[in-house]
Amino acid sequence: MAFTAGKSKEIEGKSNDWLLDQSLMQSMQDRFCDANNVYMVCLNAQNGVVTKAYGTKEELEYVYSKAGKERHVSLLDKMTGHSIESVVEEPLDTDSIKMSGVAIHVSGETIAVWIVIGIMDNSTEDIPDYMMRTSPERYYKSLEFLESLSKQIFAVKMEEVLAQEAFNKSRESETQMKEQLHRNEAMTSILKMLESEKMPASIWGFRQEHCSGKIRSRRRWI
Q1: What is the pairing mode between strands 97-106 and 109-119?
Q2: Which of 36, 38, 99, 145 could make an SS bond with 90 (beta carbons 3.0 to 4.6 A apart)?
Q3: Of 99, 83, 95, 121, which Cα lies nearest the Cα of 41?
């Protein structure tokens, strides 16, 4: 799954982890597992666990006995970074269980990986009754749906972030314009005051008398 959006200068160069809304992803994961009879957890290289693994204690113990945590880490490592792979299946020692990773790509970077495990309903192995089951066909379709759903969610998330940033810039620009307007109004008021202000009569009279005296003295000298 890949999603590319134009980033602003403010967020360009930063890690894309800020897009990971853990509460939203946890809710999405749990609902997805309920609807598709799979077990999931979301991981990323920076924080490790993004969501709490779906399943009861008994279910998770069985899952980890067949697909250990070391396989989770191995699958994460394969898909972390700038890998172009969106879906990678991890081979297990049994055909009764399928394990795959679905990458979440943002701007060419893998910011997280969904680990999806399904227990096949056509298995001949002895599987506990409390485990959820799915068919191979349904399992692979669920991977496709998860990829599409994640893409849409993160596209909306990115649009929200960019819209909020544009709004903040607009408010900042509006504030700067108001400040400039106030400065211009203040300067205009000062100029008007200087233009309309008349020189005091006493000063003007002194200058007239002083100038007349100079003229008379010059005439007498001549």
Answers
A1: antiparallel
A2: 99
A3: 99
Among the listed residues 169, 165, 174, the one whose alpha carbon sits nearest the alpha carbon of residue 6: 165
Q: Show the tokens assigned to 179.
A: 């400040």
Average pLDDT over residues 83-101: 90
Contact 76, 45 (CB under 8 A): yes
Whether the Cβ atoms of residue 3 and residue 155 lie closer than 8 Å to each other: yes
Compute the distance between CA of residue 207 and CA of residue 80 in angstroms, rounded to an integer. 88
Structure tokens at 162: 């960019």
Q: What is the 3-state secondary structure (H, E, C) of the chain?
A: CEECCCCCCCCCCCCHHHHCCHHHHHHHHHHHHHHHCCEEEEEECCCEECCCCCCCHHHHHHHHHHCCHHHHHHHHHHHCECCCCCEEEECCCCCCEEEEEEEEEECCEEEEEEEEEEEECCCCCCCCCCCCCECHHHHHHHHHHHHHHHHHHHHHHHHHHHHHHHHHHHHHHHHHHHHHHHHHHHHHHHHHHHHHCCCCHHHHHHHHHHHHHHHHHHHHHC
More confident residue, 163 or 48: 48
